[in-house]
Design a protein that fits this description.
alpha+beta, eight-stranded mixed sheet, five-stranded mixed sheet, 17% strand, binds zinc ion, signal-anchor, transmembrane, membrane, Peptidase_M4/M1_CTD_sf
Length: 1036
């Protein structure tokens, strides 16, 4: 999957990083959602009152449903609703709020979290996890399927009533092999009503016979199991088929088989049906063995009305008329063996563009709602060459005859890599060059490349269990850059990697409340919490490190043999390490006594990362090098942190004869070594730089003398130092200063050369790091002085780049301009604000002229014109928002409307964002909230709103959204705010359980900010004063 990061995030200045890719419904433990509950209620009543009652009122229906045999009795439903407080709330959606205390009773059977149970795993013996008192304890429950059966083949038939009452008539047959004799067949099931009398188990070879008798049907809602208890045992090595009819429901919760709406060109409301199964939601569409290692082939039939079309993983082999007038069955070819979470279907009236890959192997189609179809042109253009590039890169052909990509109006994640049918949110696949910014274009190609990379890493070879999710996501997140680089070679994306991935995740991974990328998970809540920035960006960063220490050839050779060995199967990280080790030993890129596993276990099984401290001898020619876990604040638990050690690939070069291209480890620092000595360095007049191209996942600190040599080099000729290392020096210096390991005087001196810097990546790094100071200072008396300093840095850049955009400039120049303008306006530089207001006014006077504002400048212009304007400016944006046909334009306007300084408009905006049918899609409500929270005036409002309206917001999503809490509290830095945050957590303990790690991170961040203010605020005020930026009032 791809994160639902916003398109503007590539250039976001707020420094808050959307970490959650997708969060799953908290009520996982219950297998019936409210909507299905209602449907079920209707069923139950109808069973009692009128057996022939037409439940499918709008739906033509041939099969007879025997309501009496519904598997679920009403008592069972009641039970589950009582046991799960969330269900209680969902069930009572039409009633008033339930007090938190009333909701929090009942058992809360949950699973052993990795946070609290480490010793029980064999995987991660070296992890040093902190059991903080603030983390909730989970009870242990095994939710894994029994291993007695192995599914081989599914036949799935679904008839969704898209323009009816959203019910789904379903039929499934699953053929399975018996690995151990058993009396039970256990399948996953959720939000589905089975028809017991249709459930049949028969031996292959005697399918027409009487079959095996089912003694009892059992449900286990906590585990989302259906169990058929048989009278006789299934025999080892024999094959059986279980078949059943069932009833499902097209929900509006963006998971399982769900519905999405949009308005057609003429304003008609249209509905489509689409799936999102990762990680544990295939079971909501049809009963199945819903675990990634239980691969099988799938043969799908989808019923549709003839005015729609359908797509699935494989091509259609035949379309069969149904007895119902106007309906047909689309029958799909049998798939390759694959995991359930990769199955996908879409039934829509969308249009498509078709092309083929250059080698003619693969038919490539892009789909979108008809009015947006031309925006799919860029994806159609870049998709096929990226696919063939990956075939070459992985040395493995793409095995399916076709690849569909479709843009879905309502979509929870950024995109989903379903094999042969990739689904996207619109902003991740559609791009209109006249309307959208360059960053939107990069986002589209990045997501396309990411999902295509998954066709190998994830689809062809799948993690045995979700613990290794990081391997999927880390790989796709790294290889996506290789894909982009192939189709957009001038974009310098390999440089951008450091900015967008390494630096971003460094900041999250420097918290005590971080987590190892490989952690044992069991419960769906834990699985969904894994889809975070750490899994993606740290995974990508350490894979990039590995690529460099192994060298490109060895890395690709190992990958290729690994994919070949495990294709259509499952693997664990150790399997990959083994193949890479073999390749490394063959090629001589690692010593024979060193394995990839030895190295990589220290990066995947323990959290955090090291800072390497380099202290040179008086003559400079040798240095003692030590490693220590990097933490922003060393608190009480730091002692245990001292045990953290890594295998660190040390790369370095010296100022006398620099070479930044040798990214293989010159020296390995072992995980048993705290201090080593390195010889043959240049004499003391020449600097040394460690971590070339920032390919290592570590920070570097130096002695003062070496810092000064680096600062001097930057001032005299910065181009001697590689671009990425200039960014690295800035980022390390500022973060080491934050952590009290380098003086701010030194760190800020690094900034003195910036006037000569022309490259985007160092500039963006510098600005991003200043954002933290700005955030911390924003409500203090020192802000004026800091603002003057920031303007001194940024106004020359602003003046140099100008307010006139050029889309023919190199991409990174466009980004640089956008960054400079955003900041100049944010710092209230008058010229910038006037320009923004004037150009927006010009647009308001010519509302139909969409070319007045260059797409790259829209974010800044919209935001700051609305910020200095009033209701008129805001309402104009709202109307533009409602009318726009382009996803990226819509979310840009949504963000900009959060910039107003009018408190009542902000309040109104928050209110409508979380009400249904407001015109704002559910998936975008967090964006409104985030924009208000990022606004100096809106920040307190957002926090109050979150506290006051918690129940409404929870109801709106049906779960807790950690990103709202993160954005509301991002600049918290006072003891009072920490108190409020803790109180908030206490009051909503139950609701916040599924996002407990994120809440813990927010609390830790607040503590860090408080500590930072105590030790650094005055230091920086003094520095500003010393450097002529004082705004002290005279008192005489
Ligand atoms: Zn992914």
């Amino acid at each position: 999957m791809t994160a639902s990061r916003g398109v503007g995030d590539l250039l976001a200045m707020e420094g808050s990083h959307p970490d959650h890719v997708i969060t799953f419904d908290k009520s996982k433990g219950c297998y019936v959602s409210r909507s299905v509950g209602v449907l079920l209620g209707v069923f139950f009543v109808s069973a009692l009152v009128v057996t022939g009652l037409l439940v499918f009122y709008y739906a033509p229906q041939k099969r007879d449903l025997h309501h009496e045999s519904l598997l679920l009795s009403s008592t069972q439903v009641t039970q589950s609703t009582e046991r799960k407080p969330i269900m209680g709330r969902r069930r009572s959606s039409n009633s008033t709020k339930i007090p938190a205390s009333a909701r929090s009773n009942g058992t809360n059977k949950r699973l052993a979290g990795s946070r609290t149970k480490v010793t029980s795993t064999t995987r991660a013996p070296t992890i040093l996890l902190n059991t903080t008192t603030e983390a909730p304890l989970h009870e242990e429950m095994n939710v894994r399927l029994p291993r007695a059966l192995k599914p081989l083949h599914y036949l799935v038939k679904l008839q969704p009533f898209i323009s009816g009452n959203f019910s789904i008539l379903g039929y499934v047959e699953v053929e399975m092999e018996v690995l151990e004799p058993t009396f039970n067949i256990t399948l996953h099931i959720a939000d589905i009503i089975t028809k017991n009398e249709t459930i049949r188990v028969a031996a292959v070879g005697d399918l027409e016979g009487l079959g095996l008798k089912v003694r009892k049907h059992e449900y286990d809602p906590e585990r989302q199991f259906y169990v058929a208890h048989l009278e006789e045992a299934l025999q080892q090595s024999h094959k059986y088929v279980l078949s059943m009819e069932f009833l499902g429901y097209l929900n509006d919760q963006l998971h399982g088989f769900y519905r999405s709406n949009y308005r057609d060109a003429d304003g008609t409301e249209k509905t489509l049906a689409v799936t999102q199964f990762q990680a544990t939601d295939a079971r909501r569409a049809f009963p199945c063995f819903d675990e990634p290692s239980l691969k099988a082939t799938f043969e799908v039939y989808l019923a549709r009305t003839t005015n729609m079309s359908s797509i699935s993983n494989m091509p259609i082999i035949e379309t069969i008329p149904m007895e119902e007038e106007g309906w047909v069955w689309d029958h799909y070819d049998t798939s390759v063996p694959m995991s359930t979470y990769l199955v996908a279907f879409v039934v829509s009236d969308f249009a498509s563009l078709t092309t083929t890959t250059a080698n003619n192997h693969t038919v490539f189609r892009v789909w979108a709602r008809e009015p947006a179809l031309q925006q799919a042109e860029y994806s159609r253009l870049v998709g096929p060459p990226i696919l063939t590039h990956f075939e070459d890169y992985f040395n493995q052909s793409y095995p399916l005859p076709k690849q569909d990509m479709i843009a879905i109006p309502d979509f929870s994640a950024g995109a989903m890599e379903n094999w042969g049918l990739i689904t996207y949110r619109e902003t991740a696949m559609l791009y209109d060059p006249r309307v959208s910014a360059a960053s939107n274009k990069q986002y589209v190609v990045a997501v396309v490349a990411h999902e295509l990379a998954h066709q190998w890493f994830g689809n062809l070879v799948t993690p045995r269990w979700w613990t290794d999710l990081w391997l999927n996501e880390g790989f796709a997140s790294y290889v996506e850059y290789i894909g982009i680089n192939h189709v957009e070679p001038t974009w310098q994306v390999m440089e951008q990697f450091v900015l967008n991935e390494v630096q971003v995740v460094f900041s999250l991974d420097s918290l005590e409340s971080s987590h190892p990328i490989s952690i044992p998970v069991v419960h769906p809540d834990e699985i969904s919490e894994l889809f975070d920035r750490i899994s993606y960006a740290k995974g990508a960063s350490i894979i990039r490190m590995m690529n460099h220490f192994l060298t490109e050839d060895t890395f690709r050779k190992g990958l290729s043999t690994y994919l070949d060995a495990f294709k259509y199967g499952n693997a664990e990280q150790d399997d990959l390490w083994e193949h890479l080790t073999q390749a490394a030993h063959q090629d001589g890129t690692l010593p024979l006594d060193l394995t990839v596993k030895t190295i990589m276990d220290t990066w995947t099984l323990q959290m955090g990362y090291p800072v390497i401290t380099v202290e040179r001898s008086p003559d400079g020619t040798s240095a003692s090098v030590s490693q220590e876990r990097f933490l922003l604040v060393k608190e009480g638990d730091f002692k245990s942190s001292e045990e953290y050690k890594w295998w660190v690939p040390l790369t370095y070069t010296g100022g006398d004869d620099s070479n930044f291209n040798e990214t293989r480890a010159k020296v390995w620092m072992k995980d048993t070594e705290t201090l080593i000595t390195i010889q043959s360095l240049p004499t003391k007049d020449h600097w040394v730089i460690f971590n070339l191209q920032e390919t290592g996942y570590y920070r570097v600190n130096y002695d003062n003398h070496n810092w000064n040599l680096l600062i001097q080099q930057l001032l005299t000729d910065h181009t001697v130092i590689a671009t990425i290392n200039r960014a690295q020096i800035i980022d390390d210096a500022m973060n080491l200063a934050r952590a009290d390991q380098v003086a701010y005087d030194t760190a800020l001196e690094v900034y003195n050369y910036l006037g000569q810097e022309t490259e985007y990546v160092p500039w963006a790094t510098a600005i991003n790091n200043l954002a933290y100071l700005k955030d911390m200072f924003s409500r203090t008396g020192g802000y004026g002085a800091l603002k003057n300093y920031l303007l001194d840095i940024l106004v020359p850049l602003y003046n140099m780049l100008g307010f006139i955009d050029s889309q023919s400039d190199p991409l990174l120049d466009q980004y640089k301009r956008q960054k400079a303008l955003t900041w100049a306006c944010e710092l209230e530089h008058q010229d910038c604000l006037q320009n923004a207001a004037a150009i927006y006014a010009h647009w308001m006077n010519n509302p139909d002229n969409s070319s007045i504002i260059s797409p790259n400048l829209k974010s800044t212009v919209y935001c700051h014109a609305i910020s200095v304007g009033g209701e008129k400016e805001w309402n104009f944006a709202w109307n533009k928002y409602l009318k726009s046909n382009v996803g990226s334009e819509k979310i840009r306007l949504l963000s900009a409307m959060g910039c107003t300084k009018q408190v009542w408009i902000l309040s109104r905006y928050l209110e409508i964002a979380f009400s249904p049918d407001s015109g704002i899609r559910k998936q975008d409500a967090f964006r409104v909230f985030g924009a208000v929270a990022a606004n100096e005036v809106g920040r307190p409002l957002a926090w109050t709103f979150l506290q006051d309206q918690w129940d409404t917001i929870f109801e709106f999503y049906g779960k807790a959204k950690s990103r709202l809490i993160k954005s509301a509290t991002s600049s918290f830095n006072s003891v009072q705010q920490l108190k409020e945050l803790r109180l908030f957590r206490r009051e909503h303990l139950q609701d916040l359980e599924s996002v407990s790690r994120s809440v813990q991170q927010v609390i830790e961040r607040t503590k860090i900010n408080i500590a930072w203010m105590t030790s650094n605020y005055q230091v920086i005020v003094n520095w500003l004063h010393k450097n002529g930026y004082s705004t002290k009032l005279s008192n005489a």
